[in-house]
Amino acid sequence: MHDAAEIRLPDEIERLTAGLPYTQDSIGLSGALVRMYDTMVLKVQPSSQRTRNEAAMLRWLSGKLPAPQLLSYAETDGMSCLLMMRIRGKMACDDFFLDRPALLIDRLAEALQLLWRTDTSGCPVLRGQAAELQEARRRVENGLVDLDDTEPGTFGPGGFRDPEALLVWLENNRPSFEPVLSHGDLCLPNLFLTQTGIGGFIDLGDAGVGDRWRDIALCHRSLRHNLCGQYATRAREDVADRLFGALGLRPDQEKLRWYLLLDELF
User: Fold this and answer.
1) What does the CA dihedral 230, 200, 54, 31 come to, rounded to 10 degrees?
2) CATH number for the domain that contains residue 37
């Protein structure tokens, strides 16, 4: 990834950011270069349909959901440049919230319910199962699945032979679809919280009309990983299953498994 200093920024973004101090953010797995200004965030990464979806969703979500205000989006030299306002709060994986799991789970449930209550009329992005499986097949056929970034047991003894075998299983075992506004990657670093509520949702390149169980599955897994798994700063009690009670739902194991396995191909 280039430094943004090596890229000719679009004129409007250059005008809005020229001379302003910033820090460079390295948290997250998106691969984007992120500059953090006092009141703005600049994200630079290779142009793709996902980057265009994020800009479209930020425009559409304005006034509908706590999310960054889009200031400018442009593409130059194969790179997308997205400038947005900073949102308040701390990441949901901050120790302040992990040390207060009851508060954290209440906030996560509130965030999910905010998504589900949002009217999806006119939403510019659809994340249905057929489209997701089509993209998964493209990734499998082009060798884009990172086997080093999968959950233990997904592949190998007791699991699937390879990504193609997993894809075939997913295609043959599609669960029912419950459409809502879906974040698409609702892990804890993509949600900012305050002590009193929701600061906002970030990294919305996978957002659109999708199944609510996708967000539940990824949020529940991220909560567990951050409390006592691979991202935990120290061992904490595993109370992730309390999320279902906070949502007033019984866990649908079939759908949870399907969406977690689908995510292994992305």
Assistant:
1) -30
2) 3.30.200.20
